[in-house]
Design goal:
The protein is α+β, with helices and mostly antiparallel strands and 271 residues long. It contains eight helices and twelve strands. The chain has four domains: 65 residues, no CATH class; 75 residues, 2-Layer Sandwich (GMP Synthetase, Chain A, domain 3), CATH 3.30.300; 64 residues, no CATH class; 43 residues, no CATH class.
Length: 271
Amino acid sequence: MSNHSKLVSITFKDNKKPYTFKTNIETLKINDSVVVETTTGLELGKCVSEPKDISVDNQFKEYKSVIRKATPQDEMMHIRSQKQALIDRKIVEQAILDEKLPMNVIACEYTLDQGKLVITYLSEKRVDFRNLLKTLTSQLPCRIELRQVGPREKAKMVGGLGVCGQKLCCKETKQDFDMVTISMAKNQMLTLNINKLSGQCGKLKCCLRFENDYYTDEKQGLPQLHSKIEYQGHQYRVAEFNVISHTITLTKPQEVRVITFDDYRDYVKEA
């Protein structure tokens, strides 16, 4: 990497995840369209940062390159590639039907020069697509790459609205997928109804992880739910937590008492 190379962040299509490329074009601005070299081939991307000097930590890393600022011809080529991909998707889907393969095509995308067609598909199991490749290569004058994705990746690519009415987190904000477990729902004292806890992908909702650390932090120093405690000289059962209002509902025969988290913590300190 030459001394005057810099690093710039690039995004592609509807994917908000930025990727880092090296560039010698110091005049790049945010929202500039650029042609970049990727592992797939030449692609059109958008700058989401201006070029920055390479830090000591990154100076020995290998980065793909920004080839040039996109020209009007590049923009037109990109549009033609997208239109051709829509046409050729029908050929791909028909070939899959003919082969009776358990594949659901999510997207077909050409590289900028239409030298490669990337077919992204969903399947619950491994697929032997050797005959499919032979069929497609005989009908399409390009290299073909098949990429299998899972339900979460499909939701990220396709998008949609969650039950909260907002756009799917995986589409709008998340760049990578983190593990989400049922213990996070338990930690947030949610009813363990898998249908209600699952997102459009059929997996546990990403927001369970987003809010889990907050619940863990707020519950520090508090008694366990349904445990029996002594408070101000009386025995109570912890009936409910409300982390939003910071209250604990305590019950005993013929009495329901609501105290704040701070009330309980102060009492424990004084005791």
